[in-house]
Amino acid sequence: MRARDVRIGETYVVTVPQRLPSGRYPLRTDDVSALAEWQQLHRLRGSRFRLTVTALDTTATPPMVKGIRIMPGSHVRLDLTPDQVQQLGLPDGDYVLDGLLRDANGDLVELPDLSPLRVPARWIRT
């Protein structure tokens, strides 16, 4: 899709190519944040996901779309309050519960995980 056709606030399907030629998608750069961004996209090769567009960068090469990727997941991480620590009979200190959230039947509960991401506009599909 062309960057000029992308609308902020709309949700699109992103199709990441299996191959990311270094001439078109720079994996080597002096800009540390750009390098991390391209490495993240490299790990997503061959995948498809939905992206809600929050911004456009038509000055980038290639033109980029910034958005939020919504991924379902069951992993939770909760910090215990001092009252909860005391009620559980634990020694004073900071504690974290880390694991999977299940309902009363033992089935995993899916929660949305929002992940900001920038992708080339050409990967966007309606």
Could you state the oligomeric state of the chains shown? single chain
Helix count equals: 2
Q: What is the overall pLDDT average?
A: 87
Quickly give the structural class: mainly beta
How many E-type strands?
Answer: 7
DSSP helix fraction: 10-25%
CA radius of gyration: 20 Å
Tally of structural domains: 2
Describe this structure in words.
The protein is mainly beta. The chain has two domains: 1-70 and 113-126, no CATH class; 75-109, no CATH class. The chain is built from two helices and seven strands, in the order βαβββαβββ. The chain has a five-stranded antiparallel beta sheet with strand order 6-3-2-1-7, with no helix packed on it. A two-stranded antiparallel sheet has the order 4-5. The longest helix is centred in the first third of the chain and has 12 residues, at 32-43. It is elongated. It starts with 10 loop residues before the first strand and ends with a strand.
